[in-house]
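Module 6 notes. Inverse folding takes a fixed backbone as the condition and produces residue identities as the prediction. Think of it as a translation problem where the source language is geometry and the target language is the twenty amino acids. Below is one complete input and output pair. Work through it position by position during the lab.
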């Protein structure tokens, strides 16, 4: 190989390496402004508020509902970590909202306001 070919290959590799982070940043920025992503993250945060430190429940059914809600919170977090499309974010939001429904039912059984 001649020196010119080696230099050309090195230049192409350097340019590709410089452009790769820009492409990834553009994609993250585009998804971060997406309404579905915002709604899913908001529902996840709200659910986390209720289940991160589970309240003591004297009622076994309420305790079970809260445990199920916490599972939905963990699942939603994993879904959000992998979400790439609007459909992924919509599914994560639906899962978080299921968890919020379980929290509401548990709070009603315990006689607490939701």
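Target side of the pair, the amino acids:
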């Amino acid at each position: 190989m001649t020196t010119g070919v080696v230099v050309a290959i090195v230049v192409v590799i350097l340019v590709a390496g410089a452009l790769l982070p820009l492409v990834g940043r553009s994609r993250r920025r585009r998804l971060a402004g997406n309404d579905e992503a915002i709604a899913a993250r908001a529902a996840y945060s709200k659910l986390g508020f209720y289940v991160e430190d589970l309240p003591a429940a004297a009622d076994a059914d309420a305790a079970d509902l809260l445990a199920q809600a916490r599972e939905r919170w963990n699942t939603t977090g994993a879904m959000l970590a992998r979400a790439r499309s609007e459909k992924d974010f919509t599914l994560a939001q639906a899962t978080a909202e299921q968890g919020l429904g379980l929290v509401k039912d548990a709070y009603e059984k315990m006689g607490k306001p939701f």
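Reference fact for the lab report: Residues 79 and 88 are 7 Å apart (CA to CA).
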